[in-house]
Amino acid sequence: MKPVQxxxxxxxxxxxxxxxxxxxxxxxxxxxxxxxxxxxSLFADWRYDAQGTPKADFVLNRPEARGCGILVAGRNFGxxxxxxxxxxxxLDHGFQAVISTEIADIFRNNSLKNGFLPIVVDQATSDWxxxxxxxxxxxxxxxxxxxxxxxxxxxxxxxxxxxxxxxxGVDELGFLLDRGAQIEAYERQRQI
Length: 192
Known about the structure:
alpha/beta, Aconitase, domain 4, seven-stranded mixed sheet, 7 strands
């Protein structure tokens, strides 16, 4: 994983509530153990028609969505079944974060383990972002804040361990491997 400290991006808006993991990445695309290429299948049932042609009216297919790294969604984003492929697909598409008033716990945990930032904001901030697609916002993981175009800073929750992993570009396994010598010393002290 790459360290995630600060970044700025335009937003793309999907105002629907209860966007579940099967909508994010349909089950038929879960046959891979690699992340590469999953971005093409992101929201596949919404993005493409039965022949695989992109639907011009779907938000991610519009020209103004190109290059947007932050998805703003309605409440309860990422609900449904547990699938790590959902944040993988979002990352592979080019998103770095999703903003909502509510993000499902399992999706949030899977996202943080993979360097994708789930940002929970208050209703007023969400309403403003949903009403203003394409605005440039800045995210600061160090101080857990989102800065809106008018300079307003909005704090978001992020537990300390996940924050540490994002800032340092390590996952849980990498964190443990970095402490291999300390773990071995501890185990030696406990031997009988």
